[in-house]
Amino acid sequence: MNTQSKYAWLPMSSLTSLLFIAALGLTSQAAWADGAALADKGGCLACHNVDSRKVGPAFKDVSAKYKGQDVQATLIEKIKTGGRGNWGVLPMPPNAGKLSDDEFKEVVQWITSL
Questions:
Q1: What span, in angstroms and rounded, lies between the C-alpha atoms of 2 and 26?
Q2: What are 46-89's pLDDT values in tens digits?
Q3: What is the pLDDT averaged over residues 33-38?
Q4: CB-CB contact of 33 with 110 (8 Å)
Q5: CA distances (Å), origin 5, targets 8, 9, 59, 103
Q6: CA 71, CA 7: separation in Å to the nearest integer?
Q7: Is it the case that residue 3 has pLDDT exceeding 80?
Q8: What is the pLDDT of residues 81-104, one digit of tens each?
Q9: Residues 107 and 42: beta-carbon distance below 8 Å
Q10: Distance (Å, rounded) from C-alpha 77 to C-alpha 44?
Q11: What pLDDT, on a 0 to 100 scale, did the predictor assign at position 76?
């Protein structure tokens, strides 16, 4: 009987790294699903799609516009208070009270990760 692991050739640090990377992938998928679910809960998906413009801009377009910028607080405030002029003439209504502050933060993290 062969008692040696089929991964014995792989140094423990490499195996640990692989497991860590796999866990990150699962975590990011879960975070992506949570962000999408919260966007749905907050009513965002009534006007926005992930990949294409609906009434408002696609979330991927929002992410691209702000890529590399620290805009989390700004976007949370825009979502809560609404506004107009950033993406055309149609206004975005205020959304304060639809989600908690932590939920708004998670939605913005999800959008900017796309």
A1: 32
A2: 999 999 999 999 999 999 999 999 999 999 999 999 999 989 89
A3: 88
A4: no
A5: 5, 9, 46, 44
A6: 44
A7: no
A8: 999 998 989 999 999 999 999 999
A9: yes
A10: 15
A11: 97
Q: Which residue has the tokens 């992506």?
A: 32
What is the Cα–Cα distance from 52 to 85, expressed in whole angstroms? 19
User: Tokens 């691209």 map to which residue?
Assistant: 64
Tokens of 36: 């999408």
What contacts 15, CB < 8 A, 6 or more positions away? 7
DSSP string for the chain: ---S-TTTTS-HHHHHHHHHHHHHHHHHHHHHHHHHHHHHHTTGGGT--SSS-SSS--HHHHHHHTTTS--HHHHHHHHHH-B-SSSSSSPBPP-TTSS-HHHHHHHHHHHHH-
- Give the Cα separation of 24 and 17 in Å (integer): 11
Residue that the structure tokens 């991964």 belong to:
7
